[in-house]
């Protein structure tokens, strides 16, 4: 590593030493570990600015590749760089290099990696034979194509002969009545394989892992090694518990009778821990027996010591018994036999996935589509060609990667191939790697973090100062994660180097501040709260938070970001962060009951909205009316408006027929429902006919308008949200039509597929998050953001382990874990690969859950509150006390791995703190810290339902409105309501007319008063320029007139022009693309020159003042508009003669000679009648604007070379 000397930091620099190093370091690959709130974006921007503005060897901004995680981050980065360059230019306006950088900024490669990959593919498409005009495939469109392809693939294999491996795989994965498990397995493994640089090679590799020939022992297999390591971790935890028990027994007040037994069990545990083979460990564990602890009383033995020994020994016993279940029962020979027996099924599954992948790619290539994974893999293919890789490595002088901890294997390889070996600058924080579900690989960051710190392969820089949060928040976060996060869980040791350092000393003093923890006790709530049945954990937490927000608004303080002074909080200063959002609707209801405005961007609930269900039902019966439930739904809905009795009457037409057939019978009958049924069928038939040829989005919009359903829903309670949902349906139909699918049937299949996959679109936004509201937000959505006051809620919710319960598991290193299924006996059991992968997934999942907590807590700027609710709180505290007592510098690893939810981590750590004693047991705590805590235990029965109780009268009014009953109101409200309801716009008549009107339109209306289109909403032009590909055709009469006007405007009136001068002008106009060659040829140059030989032409040449193409905008009166309508037009020519008289002249090219041959008088009368109104308007408008008379007005008709006086008004 040959680092250049870093320039000395200026004394007035605002950067810390580590930030300055990150800005200036060069000469090797650099990894910046940037803690939360450490200003990494500012550092990244400053590094870019200094590179492109440094005096020696400055770099052009487009020769830097800056990769961000999101489009929003890329836009922000580009904006910041732009602003910084503008500031530099203000200081040095003559600097041409900075001006050049600003010009290059728009083409700079500051984007997400996917955007960059797209540019690479469009540049080098010919190397990999793809269509450069490809489009990005919609995710749901891709899902539909996948389902169709998978259907074909499975049917093909079901029908194939001698396909025993496939049949066996299907039997092992499928349930009795469905092959959904097989379908899901293929799709899941396909998606998982795409995170690898070479998916086909990875699939082949993981299949071959199951090929065993008996030459390798079980511990030599990757799964055996994994299980041995897991067992060693658990045994180490058991050893620690035994040592704690023995230490307690050895105390002066400890019971000595059981020391021998405890020592014996400890020795056995240590032998198991030292075992090097599966069989040795298995035999040692099998011989482990647990004798009963002696009950002999010792006078000097303290009861708490006896309890301490019992708790530690019970914990160790539980660990060992679990290991006995996992390892003793697993005979090595049987385990190897199961693996060998599963090899054909695993190989067949990988073959299916590879075939599916190839066919899917072919379909996408045929339709010129790619998904985001294709962008990465295709770009990687291109970079394997030296032509492309050499170009980019030579062009980009540095590759900068933001959020490096969230990259996967494919992205890592792309970045590596773009860099030239020592010009890679990576920024990230492994403690904030929370995108495992997107197959992000924090191990890539960790590997470099360790290697760069221990060797000269690259440089590691730590940004550890936090400029976001108050010291109290940082102290709290550091206290928790010092004892929770280490190399074993979290991936990195949270030591002095990794912990957050306080960097922002600008916060004003607002007194003592503590980090609060609220534990809501749900025990016995039913006896104290009549609404206990509804008081779920979600509602209980929401009530407590609502009260906390109200108290904060009245008594709290936050810092104003603009002034730096303290102020009272507003609603938008508060955010409620949750791991997932299924509780959000309940919590929002409770918060609203307290009168607190809330906002949440939820990802579900759209298809459950009543208005959406009705519209989908309408589309279903338009597609196929023989569907009873959708048909009844539509008939009963406000769209049709039948009531229950009407539906029953129709149903009775024929109890055995479908409901649609009953409607047909009613329409053909003589009952009272006949007119309604007939009208409905006629309307439905019209809709069905139109659905076959109208674009789907336009059809849905027509349905909403014709039925009035959009307006109806807008007027209901929650109308704003309902309207937004319906408009979103229209928008989503438009997006759907941008895919390769069309029609109502496909759209309904698309929606049904989403429902089957348990996907939802999320209700449409009706309230913006920038408004003054308390926001609910998932922790993942909050990453990169910051909030003055943070409530982390739902911390007692169990960790999501659904992915670990699958019968088929996948792992990047351990491959595929399949349960053994005997198709004949229909019994199954876990195999060694399945158990090993399940263990690894659990550890990695818990590590990510810990990092998710870190992200949540570090969003807080000034106040952090942790909230949970549970039953049997005292018992839980006893369990946490035991774990707390056993902990050393960190909570024991086994206890962390056995945690069921976040509070199983947090409370044992908090219970070590000197200030924390929530049960008031006067327990001596052994850990003092700068952090300050306040833990509440809140009985749920004390949480009232809030302001709803105080607003019963308002509820009565609301119910009266819903029941359409009269609402009593005082005279003051009665007057105000009437004033608002009967308000009229003062200028209502004006709304029926256009604000502007052309002269020709005014003339047309004045000649035909009935011609006004009062409801016209769009402007249409009688002449529009034809597209260039049509210009080779004959020039239209309208175009000839326009060209002649251009010539008369551009022609100089200094002296009578001759034909050569006119031709020269036409050539110039053609060269400058004012007109085409064909249009130039259509100009009658003789007529142009002849005009100046007429008396009117000579007056023009002799005029003192000549004004061409004079624009006119004037208020006009007509039909009671009181001069509020604007007239717009252009006068061709206005001249002022030597005696001061003004003359108005208008050119006309109407073909009158062929219309009235040999009759000049009739020609003139025709033109005068046609244009008199126009000339009168021009004259009166100009006289009004200029304040002078225009006594003469003329038309010059080029067809016949006639001067026609237009002096009549």
- Compute the separation of the termini in Å: 92 Å
Question: Uncertain spans, ≥5 residues at pLDDT below 50?
Answer: 530-534, 947-952, 1009-1026, 1028-1032
**Class by SSE composition:** alpha/beta
Mean pLDDT: 85
InterPro entries: AddA, DNA_helicase_UvrD-like_C, DNA_helicase_UvrD/REP, P-loop_NTPase, PDDEXK-like_dom_sf, PDDEXK_AddAB-type, Restrct_endonuc-II-like, UvrD-like_ATP-bd
Protein name: ATP-dependent helicase/nuclease subunit A
Subunit structure: Heterodimer of AddA and AddB/RexB.
Keywords: ATP-binding, DNA damage, DNA repair, DNA-binding, Exonuclease, Helicase, Hydrolase, Isomerase, Nuclease, Nucleotide-binding
Give structural notes.
By secondary structure, the protein is an alpha/beta fold. It has 6 domains: 17-134 and 369-463, 3-Layer(aba) Sandwich (Rossmann fold), CATH 3.40.50; 139-195 and 335-367, Orthogonal Bundle (Enzyme I, Chain A, domain 2), CATH 1.10.274; 218-330; 515-601 and 772-942, P-loop containing nucleotide triphosphate hydrolases (Rossmann fold, 3-Layer(aba) Sandwich), CATH 3.40.50; 606-757, PCRA, domain 4 (Orthogonal Bundle); 998-1021 and 1029-1205, Lambda Exonuclease, Chain A (Alpha-Beta Complex), CATH 3.90.320.10. The protein is built from 45 helices and 29 strands. A 7-stranded parallel sheet has the order 15-16-14-17-22-11-23. A 6-stranded parallel sheet has the order 3-2-6-7-1-8, with helices on both faces. α19 (471-482) links the parallel β9 and β10 (501-502). α10 (222-249) crosses α33 (832-857). The model is unreliable at 530-534, 947-952, 1009-1026 and 1028-1032 (pLDDT under 50).
